[in-house]
Amino acid sequence: xxxxxxxxxxxxxxxxxxxxxxxxxxxxxxxxxxxxxxxxxxxxxxxxxxxxxxxxxxxxxxxxxxxxxxxxxxxxxxxxxxxxxxxxxxxxxxxxxxxxxxxxxxxxxxxxxxxxxxxxxxxxxxxxxxxxxxxxxxxxxxxxxxxxxxxxxxxxxxxxxxxxxxxxxxxxxxxxxxxxxxxxxxxxxxxxxxxxxxxxxxxxxxxxxxxxxxxxxxxxxxxxxxxxxxxxxxxxxxxxxxxxxxxxxxxxxxxxxxxxxxxxxxxxxxxxxxxxxxxxxxxxxxxxxxxxxxxxxxxxxxxxxxxxxxxxxxxxxxxxxxxxxxxxxxxxxxx
Length: 335
Hints:
single chain; about 45% helix; 6-stranded mixed sheet; Rossmann fold; elongated; alpha/beta; 13 helices; 434 Repressor (Amino-terminal Domain); 3 domains; 6-stranded parallel sheet
């Protein structure tokens, strides 16, 4: 099927291709083109199924109007919600979004980042993984619009938006301590990423200032299979017998609930539970699970605004380009 061109439309309406181009690019009033001709061209273009040549548009404007989004795991509730909100927000500014998952795999992350560069996206929104530092550093060096989300690299001077991880965990720990729990455990993943280090450090700091003093911590392999992690949590809970536990991620919390049920413990009578990140499962579970909820919409909206500012959108004002947002502490029946 032949692609409809500007010349085809021009021939149909009896105008020059340049006039048709001005109209389709929203410059009719600027070029003093009559409303009658404008309407005729627009109606004809729609009827003929005209689609602009994006390569030509990109060459002419220097923009593709496409943003590249890389998240850790699009199947994860947090990252799926983040991607959806970013897509909606980007559309408000006239941008489309290409997105994919790194699966916390550095090789895949680097390959996807380079693919987005080859596609000449106008800007990048990235939840980075270890091993992507060099490529991200190059984007910063070449002044490419870039915003990191959920985590960042301290040695790379890039814009970022994340939740206040330390403040959130301290809030959860203070809640446990005020409730009188004396043996609080922390279950997390083995990770060098800053957001996980911040959560772990906050737990250690809170324990050091409490009567408990001794930390009870389990670190599981991020890439461990489901059954292995459930078994690790089960053995940890059986051996240490905590009276409260804080899970560092929502998928650990979900696996933890399976483990707790398998042991036969009752929440919160035998074990109080708080989880970092919310999930529909935690809201629907009986009893409901107390969570440190990341403000997904605020993170997405802030990241898009920072990126639009970098792209030169004068309608967007920002106070700073490295932002930490407070988590929402939602108390349910599990504590």
